[in-house]
Design goal:
Chain B: InterPro entries: ABC3_permease_C, MacB_PCD, Membrane_comp_ABC_pdt. The structure holds two protein chains of two kinds. By secondary structure, chain A is of the alpha/beta class. In chain A, helix 7 packs parallel to helix 8. The longest helix of chain A has 18 residues. Chain B contains 27 helices and 24 strands. The radius of gyration of chain B is 33 Å and the shape is elongated. Classes of the chains: A alpha/beta, B alpha+beta.
Chain lengths: ~260, ~850
């Protein structure tokens, strides 16, 4: 089930894949109540690219992202992060991978309300008992535009600012991949744009790999490649599309 | 980790303050138990009359019981007079004093034969003159007693009674009057004389007054100069034959002089140990339910932590650090009020008479240290339990679960909950049917905790059931009722954490009250219906002299006189699998024509055979010791003398009259005073007659302290140890209930305050303040109704079980007003704890509340 995307994967295979999925299926429950969320997905996400995953509700977007992040285990198939195979790893090892090699940005509630911006950003390093690279920390905070607010607490920040702090936290460990689950879902249009431009910037300027799940065609249009998911399968892709192209493709996939 | 924990605590003061308060109060409760325990182990009273002795030789006042608490003998263990001879031959002994102590009453000469009683602040004891060497008492006025009719008083007593040298003093022993001339006064010894008054007679007169001339109260030893008290005591113990004799030195002498102090310790140690255990359990329970709520309110944040980087261990570490900070601070702060609480408990125990009024607590830092350690450990355990679920689940589940409450309870939780409920039912009701006696009473009482934990586990289901029950009522209000119903069924878990402490408080209060009422009501009923005599003779002196019986029998028209003496005995038996020895109230009586004066409700055997080495037992005592008519009961009499007695009868009225009934002489011979408590007098078949009454009145006029009463007046029941035990339990539990009360308010306030954002949202979408308040009012009813129903439901089986174990009837005595009062109080408390925080939360402008953060 490699579909169209499987063919073009060869064209980018010259570059090392940051993530690779190999016939990944995911089924919840057993017997009659079984729900299949993913039906054999195989793909490579090249390093240093910005990929958006789109699909209507129930297409398996979130499950897909959870499997890539090691938050969830595929029923069959394999997920590789760089050279590391995630499937079969123990929870402790997965936690270590999440904290060291993956940056994760949620739709909301990304931050601990008790901690300052700086404390939130260095939280992962603290949990992993790693030293904080101060130069890099400063650069990351400057890049997301939060360097002047390091001592504020989340409730003193706007939604967009909170999301930028979350991105800083995801970047500060220099992860192999930054995964974002509807990162602009709770933001207004203007603030969304700021966040999406930030993603584009970190891909272009520091070569960060970003994989983003969204249902917003405008958000998807910032990506290098947009993958379409329908009914748990890949249903084509677009390179550097315009929002209109994305919207048009989505309409064909069904409601979103 | 501690700095994150600290920031979190600072940022979420509301939630943590609740846990903090729970820990402070918990630490206070445990400290109080610790202080009582330490006092039981250490506290003593300095000797007064024996203050000058090097070593005192006396009876062994405790019984050695392997693997169990050593009980104290209720009466003084006396020493054979011959022992003094053995002691005097020991190296280093300069002088041996044969001390005799006789309880007395002082009457003033008012011209009548009866005399006018003088109320003294302390008990008055008479001794031989040679005992003054032990104080030492110094003669300050007059001379030492030279004849049997002369006495020397301690100066304090003379002052209190208004007597001086040359006056006449009437000093009666029981109801036997003696008249003496005061020939001198002595000064109290260096330690003062604060717990007693003393009168001294010639040694010969003291021996004559003593009920057992062949026995001594104690033997005082004055050592030669430079003799070490400890060494001397060791040599004396080697020289003396007989195992029940022991030596006392230093402050330990106070234990020999004042038996009530030793008895208080025997009472405090097991009580505070068992109460401390319960308290620790309740503290863990309350703290974990409070922490559970704090953690519940920040599940989303913890789920996020799990998803981005934290291992389950780290979640535990984070929560553990928070708990440690809150726990240590709270526990340390709570220790100080704990000493205060111990003082209050002491006062209450002294008030019901289980501790002497001047019993002093031993204050040292050890209970506080132990309480801090236990509370912190308990809080850590509670935190671990509360964090267990959130830390264990997969991060994806955590993220999705945190959005809405999970519908179903885990099946393990349900199974364990139902299992505990069944276990509690069995322990409370089946146990008293199968093995009655004290084990059953303890089992029924303890089953409340099991039932509580069981219902706590399935409480969300109960809340949902209550919601369904109340839904028809809710439907009458279209907005508030709809919202309240939806909230209650969707957030059953959150609601149940408010229900649990409220139900616990209700159940504890109801059960303790019902147990106390059942005991008191049954004892009173037994006592009033049990005395079938026409008259009862009692005395306000130490007791009725035994020669009074024959005087009353000689009166015209008197047919039956039953002397009744009261004391306590130890009943020895195997409790489940280890030896136990417990005090039971006992009476000694003359069983001749007993049916004319006393109805003990004999169930088996016959009281007629109560003579010689026999005993009759109440069915509770018989079941506790597992002996039947014809079998042998193993008993230590009041002064420790060991007897194996054949059981001749089992009777029902044990609560009203005492659980052990012995032949009259056997009981009195082993009490210190050897006097009767009451004489039950019946006239001929015609019942009360003026002739008998006149005879008795005439006797009373010539006898100090004697009072003639009708059986109706004689309801001054000695309710046996169960009533006192119930009071003791009630006092101890009052402290626990206060704790639960604080926990209830705490939890409800916290749960309500945590919803201010939700209230704000409701207001923003157009719900009026009134509708929101009404919604919370209806929700509070779900909480209160569930709590009261659960509380009453789980209080009933233990109450029924206790009634079964105490009276044989499965009907607990219920004071409807008291039950209604408790339920009303719980309702009011629940309602206030929800409605006040709701009002205060609604005072903020909604738009600010929405953005105020989580």
């Amino acid at each position: 089930m490699t579909s169209e995307w499987g063919g073009s994967a060869a064209t980018v295979a010259t570059r090392t894949a940051a993530m690779r999925l190999d016939s990944v299926t995911k089924t919840y429950g057993t017997g009659e109540n079984a729900v299949t969320a993913l039906r054999g997905i195989s793909l490579d996400v090249p390093r240093g690219t910005f990929t958006a995953v789109m699909g209507p509700s129930g297409s398996g977007k979130s499950t897909f992202l959870h499997c890539v992040a090691g938050l969830d285990q595929p029923t069959t198939g394999h997920v590789h992060l760089g050279d590391t195979q995630l499937s079969g790893l123990k929870e402790a090892a997965l936690t270590a991978i999440r904290r060291e090699r993956i940056g994760y940005v949620f739709q909301a509630y990304n931050l601990m309300s008790a901690l300052t911006v700086r404390q939130n950003v260095t939280l992962v390093a603290r949990l992993a008992d790693m030293a904080v690279d101060e130069t890099w920390l400063r650069e990351v905070l400057t890049r997301v535009g939060m360097h002047q607010h390091v001592d504020r607490r989340p409730n003193q920040l706007s939604g967009g600012q909170q999301q930028r702090v979350a991105i800083a936290r995801a970047l500060v460990t220099r992860p192999d991949a930054l995964l974002a689950d509807e990162p602009t879902g709770a933001l207004d249009t203007r603030t969304s744009q700021e966040v999406l431009k930030l993603f584009r910037q970190i891909v272009d300027e520091i070569g960060q790999t970003v994989l983003m799940v969204t249902h917003d065609p405008v958000a998807a249009s910032y990506a290098d490649t947009v993958l379409f998911l329908a009914d748990g399968q890949l249903a084509g892709h677009l390179n550097r599309p315009s929002p209109a192209q994305v919207a048009e493709r989505m309409t064909r996939l069904g409601d979103w | 980790m501690f700095d994150i924990a600290w920031s979190t605590i600072k940022n979420r003061k509301g939630g943590f303050i609740a846990a903090f308060i729970a820990v402070i109060c918990g630490s206070a409760v445990i400290t109080a138990c610790g202080v009582l325990l330490m006092s039981g182990l250490l506290s003593g009273v300095a000797p007064e009359r024996y203050a000058g002795a090097t070593v005192m030789v006396g009876g062994q006042q405790t019984k050695d019981v392997s693997q169990n608490f050593d009980p104290h003998f209720p009466e003084r263990v006396t020493v054979p007079a011959s022992t003094a001879e053995q002691v005097s031959r020991v190296d280093g002994v300069e002088k041996v004093v044969r001390d005799r102590t006789v309880a007395m009453d002082l009457h003033k000469d008012d011209g009548s034969a009866r005399g006018e009683p003088v109320r003294l602040d302390h008990p008055l004891y008479g001794h031989g003159w040679s005992s003054t060497a032990l104080g030492p008492f110094e003669l300050t006025e007059g001379s030492r007693p030279g004849s049997a009719r002369e006495t020397v008083l301690d100066a304090g007593l003379a002052r209190e009674a208004g007597l001086k040298v040359g006056d006449t003093a009437r000093l009666s022993v029981g109801t036997t009057p003696h008249v003496y001339r005061v020939v001198g006064l002595v000064d109290a010894p260096a330690n003062g004389l604060d717990r007693q008054s003393a009168a001294f007679f010639t040694d010969a007169q003291a021996t004559a007054l003593s009920p057992r001339p062949d026995r001594l109260t104690a033997i005082g030893v004055l050592g030669e100069d430079g003799t070490d008290a400890g060494d001397l005591a060791g040599r004396i113990e080697d020289a003396v034959t007989g195992t029940d004799i022991t030596t006392y030195t230093g402050d330990g002498i106070g234990d020999l002089e004042f038996l009530d102090v030793g008895a208080s310790r025997g009472f405090l140690v097991p009580l505070s140990a068992s109460f401390g255990g319960t308290a620790l359990g309740v503290v863990i329970f309350v703290v974990s339910s409070t922490l559970g709520l704090v953690i519940h309110q920040r599940r989303r944040e913890l789920a996020m932590l799990r998803a981005i980087a934290a291992t389950p261990r780290q979640i535990h570490q984070l929560i553990g650090s928070e708990v440690l900070l809150v726990g240590v601070t709270g526990a340390v702060l709570g220790a100080a009020p704990g000493f205060l609480a111990a003082g209050l408990l002491r006062d209450a125990f002294a008030h019901v008479g289980v501790l002497p009024d001047d019993f002093e607590l031993a204050f040292n830092p050890l209970p506080a240290v132990a309480a801090v350690l236990l509370t912190v450990l308990g809080a850590r355990l509670a935190g671990f339990i509360a964090a267990f679920r959130i830390a264990r689940i997969q991060p994806v589940e955590a993220l999705s679960e945190s959005e809405a409450e999970q519908e179903e309870l885990g099946s393990t939780r349900k199974t364990v909950g139902v299992g505990l409920l069944l276990l509690g039912l069995v322990a409370s009701i089946v146990l008293p049917l199968v093995i009655p006696g004290q084990v059953a009473i303890a089992g029924a009482g303890g089953s409340l905790v099991v039932l509580m934990v069981g219902s706590a586990l399935i409480s969300p289901v109960l809340v949902q059931a209550a919601t369904r029950m109340l839904t028809p009522l809710f439907k009458r209000s279209r907005v508030s009722g709809f919202l309240a119903g939806a909230n209650s069924s969707a957030n059953a878990r959150r609601l149940s954490s408010a229900v649990v402490p409220l139900a616990l408080g209700t159940a504890m209060a109801l059960m303790q009250l019902s147990m106390l009422n059942t005991v008191e009501a049954t004892a009173e009923e037994q006592a009033t219906t049990g005395v079938v005599s026409d008259y009862v003779l009692t005395s306000d002196t130490t007791g009725l002299s035994t020669d009074l019986t024959s005087k009353v029998r000689a009166l015209d028209g008197v047919e039956t006189v039953t002397p009744v003496a009261r004391s306590q005995v130890l009943l020895n038996y195997i409790e489940i699998d280890k030896p136990a020895s417990n005090p039971f109230s006992a009476q000694g009586l003359d069983a001749r024509d007993l049916d004319r004066t006393l109805d003990l409700d004999v169930r088996e055997g016959s009281m007629d055979k109560l003579r010689g080495d026999t005993v009759a037992l109440s069915w509770i005592a018989a079941d506790t010791a597992r002996v039947d008519v014809g079998e042998t009961a193993d008993i230590n009499l009041g002064d420790g003398v060991h007897k194996k007695l054949k059981v001749v009868a089992v009777y029902g009225n044990g609560l009203g009259f005492g659980d052990v009934t012995l032949p009259h002489r056997m009981l009195t011979e082993h009490t210190a005073n050897q006097q009767d408590t009451a004489l039950l007098v019946s006239a001929g078949s015609g019942g009360a007659s003026p002739q008998v009454e006149a005879g008795l009145e005439k006797l009373a006029e010539g006898t100090p302290g004697l009072a003639v009463q009708s059986p109706q007046e004689f309801t001054a029941v000695q309710q046996g140890q169960f009533a006192q035990q119930s009071w003791t339990n009630l006092i101890a539990n009052a402290l626990l209930m206060l704790y639960v009360l604080i926990a209830v308010v705490n939890t409800l306030v916290m749960a309500t305050t945590g919803r201010s954002r939700e209230f704000a949202m409701l207001r923003l979408i157009g719900t009026s303040k009134r509708q929101t308040r009404r919604m919370m009012f209806l929700e509070s009813w779900v909480v209160i109704v569930t709590a009261v129903v659960v509380g009453v439901a789980i209080a009933i089986p233990p109450a029924v079980g206790c009634a079964l174990a105490l009276t044989g009837q499965p009907i607990p005595y219920v004071q409807p007003l008291a039950w209604i009062g408790i339920i009303a109080f719980v309702t009011l408390l629940g309602w206030l704890s929800i409605s006040l925080p709701t009002r205060s939360a609604l005072r903020t402008r909604p738009i600010e509340a929405v953005y105020a953060g989580e």
